[in-house]
Write a structure and sequence with these properties.
InterPro entries: DNA_brk_join_enz. This is Phage integrase family protein. It comes from Lentzea miocenica. The protein is mainly alpha-helical. Among the domains are: about 40-70; about 75-110, no CATH class. Helices cover about 35% and strands about 5% of the residues. It is built from four helices and four strands, in the order ααααββββ. It has helices at about 1-10, 40-55, 60-70, 75-80; strands at about 85, 90, 100-105, 110. The strands form two sheets. Strands 1-2 form a two-stranded antiparallel sheet. Strands 3-4 form a two-stranded antiparallel sheet.
Length: about 110
């Protein structure tokens, strides 16, 4: 969108990342499904079991279960600290000061 705006303002001649239209039939005309498909709790457990078997670690099982059942994003889950988990109250708090784990090509930071 930013590159399209730059083209409109004549700051650059063309958007270098714009997809070119293809010739032939396109499937974009099909209607979007009315409802998103979510994994059932049983499917989340099955995916977590597979992750644990592939990694030989219970950590990946727990990370997959927590992510699948809370809906948290990858950065939020990997940036989570023990102090932010309140197991007695049954909640996980994403700290607004720390936030989540951010990754770039050469470093990671909270």
């Amino acid at each position: 969108m930013m590159l399209d705006d730059a083209v409109d303002e004549r700051l650059i001649p063309a958007n270098p990342v714009r997809r070119r239209s293809r010739r032939g039939r396109r499937r974009d005309n099909e209607p979007m499904p009315a409802e998103r498909i979510w994994a059932t709790p049983e499917q989340v457990v099955w995916i977590a079991d597979q992750a644990a078997q592939l990694s030989n670690s219970h950590d990946y099982w727990l990370l997959t279960i927590a992510t699948g059942w809370t809906g948290a994003r990858w950065g939020e889950m990997t940036g989570l600290r023990r102090a932010n988990t309140h197991l007695d109250g049954g909640c996980i708090v994403i700290d607004p000061d720390t936030g989540c784990l951010h990754e770039s090509v050469h470093r990671m930071w909270l």
